[in-house]
Specification:
Elements (H helix, E strand, L loop, with lengths): L2 H18 L8 H38 L4 H23 L11 E7 L4 H21 L2 E9 L5 E9 L7 H6 L4 E7 L10 E11 L15 E6 L15 E6 L4 E5 L5 H28 L6 H4 L5 E6 L4 E4 L4 E3 L2 H5 L4 H17 L1
Parallel strand pairs: 4-9
Antiparallel strand pairs: 1-3, 1-5, 2-3, 4-5, 6-7, 7-8, 9-10, 10-11
Helix pairs in contact: 1-2, 2-3
């Protein structure tokens, strides 16, 4: 990226700092949150640019002084090495980002092959993501959940929101989690101790909410059903039909929300999720037209390819896309996903820099 472009980012960072210092900006929590995220996102770029500018000035001064005092020659050489490293760092920071990296996400976990065992594994995956979110300080909200007879989940939808100070957002961390997750273990329903293989599906898409190109939806394209919210075992949580299920007839996309207490609140939140789903679908279709070799498992929502295996007997987790393998499965399932996700981010960054 050119020097003028970097200068523009430095200027934007300063302007954001000025705006965030204005109490009036914080009257709109959503707008302030977006400004805060952009400010945090630009922070590393601005810091690297300032260090590079300072190092170049110091190196120029050292070269001038070296003409009169040879002792400064060594300092100039050392600064040249430092400059090369800073230039590499800045170049990596300026690699075009996924435009959704700062977004929150909606994550769905669905049972698949394996019946009740698959539902139990879906519950384990849901807990894993919720524990990881807790470690990161994210806000979580279960929007809809259909439990199985043994306490697993046939289907669960959760919203994950990061702090405004997090420059990366939730999507940056979880965008590679979409796909089929396979488990190898002895099911609780297995009486002879044999290891079975089953799978659960994960879908992840940016929670664009109201701020999306798909914000306008024709009411005639919707079928809206209401029903009573239910908890574990099907027991009624309330006695009114407050839960909402919305079907987008042209695409067949179905979303449900029963977390809120009122039907209007559930409908509003379900519509936000629907907009996000339709936006993700539109982007997937556009990407399919633009490239036959799509990297993102999330955007393609390709359930045919197993992206990861969780092997209980060996306490092993394997991500098949980047060849990652570790023997700390119990820790990963308890929310320690940092190393797994870092391997995927590193692979993406390496590919982007080399592109």
């Amino acid at each position: 990226m050119s020097a003028p472009a970097v200068d523009a980012m430095v200027a934007e960072h300063a302007e954001l700092e000025r705006r965030l210092a204005d109490p009036a900006v914080h009257a709109d929590a959503g707008a302030a949150r977006k400004l805060g995220r952009r400010y945090a996102e630009l922070g590393p770029v601005v810091a690297a640019a300032r260090k590079l500018h300072s190092a170049r000035a110091d190196a120029e001064a050292a070269r001038e002084l070296a003409a009169e005092d040879p002792a400064f020659a060594a300092e100039a050489a050392e600064l040249s090495t430092c400059i090369a490293g800073l230039e590499t760092t800045l170049a990596e920071l300026l690699v075009p980002r996924d435009p959704h990296d700062g977004d929150d996400v909606v994550l769905e976990v669905k049972s698949g092959e394996g019946g009740e065992e698959s539902a139990l594994f879906a519950g384990d995956l849901l807990r894993m993501y919720l524990r990881y979110a807790e470690r990161r300080g994210w806000q979580t909200e279960v929007l809809d959940a259909v439990e199985s007879d043994l306490g697993g989940y046939k289907d669960a939808t959760v919203s994950l929101r990061s702090r405004a100070s997090d420059p990366h957002g939730v999507w940056a961390a979880l965008k590679f989690e979409g796909g089929v997750h396979r488990v190898q273990r002895v099911p609780v329903t297995e009486s002879q101790g044999r290891v079975h293989t089953s799978a659960a599906g994960v879908l992840v898409y940016p929670d664009t909410g109201k701020d999306t190109a798909a914000a306008t939806i024709d009411d005639n394209d919707l079928r809206i059903d209401v029903f009573r919210s239910s908890g574990h075992g099907g027991q009624s949580v309330n006695t009114t039909d407050s839960a909402v299920r919305i079907t987008h007839l042209p695409t067949g996309v179905v979303v449900s929300c029963q977390n809120e207490r009122s039907q209007l609140q559930n409908r509003a939140r379900a519509m936000e999720v629907l907009r996000s789903r339709l936006q993700a679908l539109a982007e997937a279709e556009a990407e399919a037209l633009a490239s036959a070799d799509r990297r993102s498992q999330v955007r393609t929502v390709d359930r045919s390819e197993r992206i990861r295996t969780y092997n209980y007997p060996e306490n092993r987790i394997s991500d098949h896309r980047v060849g990652y393998k570790a023997y700390n499965l119990s820790a990963v399932l308890d929310g320690d996903l940092d190393d797994v996700l870092a391997a995927l981010v590193t692979a993406e960054r390496t590919e982007s820099v080399g592109a």
